[in-house]
Amino acid sequence: MESATTPTPAPTPEVRVGGPAARANLRRDVPYGVPVPGRDGFVTSPYAPTQGFVDVREIAPGTPVQDPFTGKIFLRP
Q1: β-strand 15-17 against 19-20: which pairing, if any?
Q2: Is 49 inside a domain boundary?
Q3: Are 33 and 44 in contact (CB under 8 A)?
Q4: In this structure, what is the dihedral angle of CA atoms 45, 20, 32, 70, given to the nearest 10 degrees?
Q5: Hey, which of 2-6, 17-21, 47-51 has the most confident mean pLDDT?
Q6: For residues 60 and 37, what is the distance between their CA atoms, to the nearest angstrom?
Q7: Which of 76, 18, 21 shows the shortest CA–CA distance to 52?
Q8: What is the extent of the structural domain holding 49?
Q9: Which one of 3, 20, 58, 74 is most buried, by most CB atoms within 10 A?
Q10: Which residue has the higher pLDDT, 12 or 43?
Q11: Does residue 10 lie in a domain region?
């Protein structure tokens, strides 16, 4: 007899809220967060792309965001 196996669902990525960062002393080469396809207002950090998603829904585009995973600054796309 064959045993029926059910596929295990993919783990849900961790989601953290990104906070606005101060513009003072902002470097000129600050990278942008990477938009998550199909999830408006969520990005992955350019510094920790495998850690999870960053919720930037309450932050205006172009605003510096403090990465909740690394503490580094990136721009909201």
Answers
A1: unpaired
A2: yes
A3: yes
A4: -30
A5: 47-51
A6: 18
A7: 18
A8: 15-77
A9: 74
A10: 43
A11: no
pTM score? 0.75
Tell me whether residue 71 is in a domain.
Answer: yes
Total tally of structural domains belonging to the chain? 1
Residue 4 lies in a domain: no
Q: How far apart are CA 8 and CA 20, in angstroms?
A: 37
Residue of 29, 71, 77 lying closest to 57 (CA atoms): 77
Q: How far apart are CA 62 and CA 59, in angstroms?
A: 9
Amino acid at 48: A
Give the dihedral of Cα atoms 71, 63, 61, 15; nearest 10 deg: 20
Does 71 have pLDDT greater than 80?
A: yes
**How wide is the angle at C-alpha 65 spanned by C-alphas 46 and 72, nearest 5°?**
55
25 alpha-carbon distance from chain centroid: 22
